[in-house]
Write a structure and sequence with these properties.
Elements: H1 7-12, H2 21-28, H3 30-40, E1 45-48, E2 58-62, H4 69-87, H5 90-110, H6 132-153, E3 154-156, H7 161-181, H8 190-213, E4 214-216
Antiparallel strand pairs: 1-2, 3-4
Helix pairs in contact: 2-5, 2-8, 3-8, 4-5, 7-8
């Protein structure tokens, strides 16, 4: 799951007390921000194992602090606390936390059994990455269904709104196409980790641009 992690962010952004869309995009990928950041310093680890799943060669064998249910909960709590400290918006904080937690649940659908409850077995994952005919349309449906819902529930407040939406769609499609059809990484090296972090950041910036150009219809 890549761009599908942004689907809960787009749905959540239609709540009147939700944080901004860019902030929620960060929430949707927060544990992956943490994972690749930790991997850069050897705190969590993964390797490239061709054939690990049909769609993805990542062997995610060591990620207890980000991709355990307990670890994801800690990230969600920390994110909620940060939102509350900055805004004193309790509802917005809870929404942000829910979007962070959605990451683990969506990963549960596609990952091979490499997710945990608290960093140790049992290892969990339904393995839809082994079934591209299911995983690929599911990701697109989640992502662009959520985007359509967001557009339906909001209205433009600036002429740049259409441009912002087009740029976001192009960026999301480009990222997902690269993930699905680009060359497989040869090694779990720093360049790969930094590239992932840059991609997450660019998506959040594009979402923030969209968020600034639209407002809720009944706001």
């Amino acid at each position: 799951m890549f761009i599908g992690h942004f689907a809960p962010a787009m749905v959540a952004a239609t709540h009147p007390k939700a944080p901004g869309l860019g902030t929620l995009f960060v929430a949707g990928q927060l544990v992956d921000f943490g994972f690749f950041g930790f991997a850069l310093f050897g705190i969590e680890n993964f390797r490239i194992t061709p054939g690990m799943t049909v769609m993805n060669p990542l062997d995610l064998y060591d990620m207890p602090y980000t991709h355990s249910l307990l670890g994801s909960g800690a990230w969600a709590l920390g994110f909620a606390l940060l939102i509350w400290l900055m805004t004193r918006n309790k509802t917005g904080a809870m929404i942000g936390a829910a979007v962070v937690m959605s990451h683990w649940l969506l990963d549960l659908l596609v990952h091979a059994p490499d997710l945990t409850l608290a960093g140790s077995p049992p290892d969990l994952g339904f393995g839809l990455w082994n079934y591209p005919a299911i995983a690929m349309p599911l990701e697109l449906l989640l992502t662009f269904g959520a985007l359509a819902f967001f557009v339906f529930r909001t209205r433009s407040k600036t002429p740049r709104s259409k441009l912002a939406l087009v740029l976001l769609v192009i960026l999301l499609l480009a990222f997902q196409a690269s993930n699905w059809f680009g060359p497989e990484p040869e090694a779990a090296d720093a360049a790969m980790m930094i590239t992932a972090l840059i991609a997450f950041t660019l998506a959040a910036l594009a979402a923030a641009f969209v968020g600034r150009t639209r407002t809720l219809k009944h706001a």
